[in-house]
Write a structure and sequence with these properties.
This protein has eight helices and no strands. With 175 residues, the protein is mainly α. The protein has one domain. The relative contact order is 0.09. It is found in: Golgi apparatus membrane; Membrane.
Length: 175
C-alpha cells in the first residue's frame, strides 16, 4: 500500500494517540431534529440575557429617536427609523420570556390580530421606507402611524385592552 506525504504526516501523530476524523457521521448530519419553537433550546439564563439585551437595545434606540424628535419636522425619518427599530426589539423581547410560540399565539388571537398586523406592517414599512424611499410625506405618515400602531399594540396586550380599544374605535367611527 502506498502512502502519500500527507498520510505519512498524519500517521506520525499516532504516537500521541490523536486520530483525525470527522466528529459526526452521515446519519448524524441528515438526522431529523425537532426544533424547539418555544425557546429555541435556550436555557432560562440565556433567555433572560436575550430579554435584557433586547430591552437595552430597544431603550437605547428609543432614546436616540427621542433626541431626534426636534429634527422630525425637517426629516421625519430621523425620528421614525430608530423608533421603529426600538419597537422591533420591544416586540421581540417578550418572546424570550413567554416563549415565541406561545407569544405569537397570544398576539395573533382574536381582536389582537388586527393590532399586531397593523403594528408589524407599519414597523416593516417604516424601516423599508427609511432605507429605500425618499419621500417626506410618506415618512411623516409612517412616523405618525408608527406611534399610533405601537400604542394600540401595547394597549391590546393588556387583558381586556383589545376589547376596549375596539369599542372606542367603533364609537369614533359611528360619528
Amino acid at each position: 500500500m502506498k502512502y502519500t506525504e500527507l498520510e505519512n504526516a498524519l500517521n506520525m501523530n499516532d504516537s500521541l494517540d490523536t486520530k483525525f476524523s470527522i466528529p459526526f457521521t452521515k446519519n448524524d448530519l441528515f438526522k431529523k431534529r425537532s426544533i424547539d419553537l418555544e425557546h429555541f433550546n435556550m436555557t432560562f439564563s440565556q433567555r433572560m440575557l436575550a430579554f435584557f439585551f433586547c430591552l437595552a437595545i430597544g431603550m437605547v434606540t428609543m432614546a436616540y429617536s427621542f433626541f431626534n424628535i426636534l429634527g422630525a419636522v425637517t426629516s421625519p425619518i430621523r425620528f421614525a427609523l430608530p423608533y421603529a427599530i426600538s419597537n422591533y426589539f420591544f416586540f421581540l423581547m417578550f418572546g424570550f420570556i413567554f416563549g415565541f410560540k406561545t407569544y405569537f399565539k397570544k398576539v395573533f388571537r382574536g381582536k389582537k390580530r388586527n393590532y399586531t398586523v397593523a403594528f408589524m406592517a407599519c414597523t416593516f414599512l417604516t424601516i423599508y421606507a427609511g432605507y429605500y424611499v425618499k419621500s417626506y410625506f410618506l415618512h411623516l405618515f409612517l412616523c405618525l402611524g408608527q406611534i399610533v400602531t405601537f400604542v394600540a399594540f401595547v394597549i391590546a396586550l393588556v387583558p381586556g385592552g383589545s376589547d376596549g380599544l375596539s369599542s372606542i374605535i367603533k364609537l369614533l367611527l359611528k360619528r
